[in-house]
Amino acid sequence: MGVVNVTPDSFSDGGFCLDARSAIDHALKLHAAGADILDVGGESTRPGAQPVTLEEEQHRVLPVVEALAGRGLVVSIDTQKPAVMQAAIGAGAAMVNDVLALRAPGALEAVAGTDAAVCLMHMQGEPRSMQQAPVYADVVREVRDFLQERVAVCELAGIGRARIVVDPGFGFGKALAHNLALLAGLGRIAGLGLPVLAGMSRKSMLGALTGRDVQQREFAGVAAHLAALARGARILRVHDVSAMRDALAVWNALEDVRDGT
Ligand code: 7PJ
User: Fold this and answer.
1) pTM, to two decimals
2) How far is residue 210's CA from residue 110's CA, in Å, rounded to a whole number?
3) Are 120 and 145 in contact (CB under 8 A)?
4) Residues having CB within 6 Å of any atom of ligand 1
């Protein structure tokens, strides 16, 4: 899964068209580099980020979703807003990626009446304040229990298991030790029996481990995502698709070898 952010380009005065076009161009490059899913988002969920209005978010993402889905590409819509989910599915999105795990009023209904897939992510607190003082007794158990409960709620609402992906939400209300415990214990999340999505690309946990700035975390990201793959992750949400694809080429070649001796 390649990350496609549709946020205004502060260096251009071209406004919306330029933003949409550059997002589409970027997404096509990620697809050419080997991304199977393009995750389109118009509202930042980074720690401390400010919310975006419904109108602004739709204005940003819908032309991009439509253009990519219209080319036959698999599009995921990264949003917390039920109205954006519905409009994006109408524009061709095949998956809803929701950091709130469909907890917003109306979100379950927005997905239930469609055949879109959904990624349910764990987050402690809310983006504005989630990194201030995250606390867990047993982070892997608490995240797994939360996801299990959200899966049950989805099933009751008519969203069958075949449509559901789960995600521990690296960096969403987690200190470094929590993120590492989740990565080490990812097998217990995979034990829920649903595909696991892991997203650590460029995140501060990689900065904390390497001392590197956000633009220089590519190698650390590849290592982290391979570690997730080894523990059962099925979808890797990354910015640096080419690097991840090369690593997967090596990884998958080994999977095909029955006897290495
Ligand atoms: C994630 C996400 C993640 C899912 C973001 C960033 C922050 N969606 N959206 N999982 N992270 N499912 O990319 O740094 O980890 S936005």
Assistant:
1) 0.95
2) 41
3) no
4) 3, 45-46, 78, 97, 99, 119, 121, 167, 169-170, 197, 199, 203, 237
pLDDT 10s digits, 154-206: 999 999 999 999 999 999 999 999 999 999 999 999 999 999 999 999 999 99
- Residues 96 and 75: their CA atoms lie apart, in Å, by 9
Give the three-state DSSP class for 4.
Answer: strand
Q: Supply 114's token pair.
A: 């469609």
**Can you give the pLDDT at residue 150?**
98
Sheet holding 117-121, edge to edge: 2-5, 38-41, 75-78, 95-98, 117-121, 164-167, 196-198, 233-236
Q: How far is the CA of 230 from the centre of ligand 1 (A)?
A: 20
Rounded CA gap, 47 and 100, in Å? 14
pLDDT digits (tens, 9 = 90+) for 101-112: 999 999 999 999
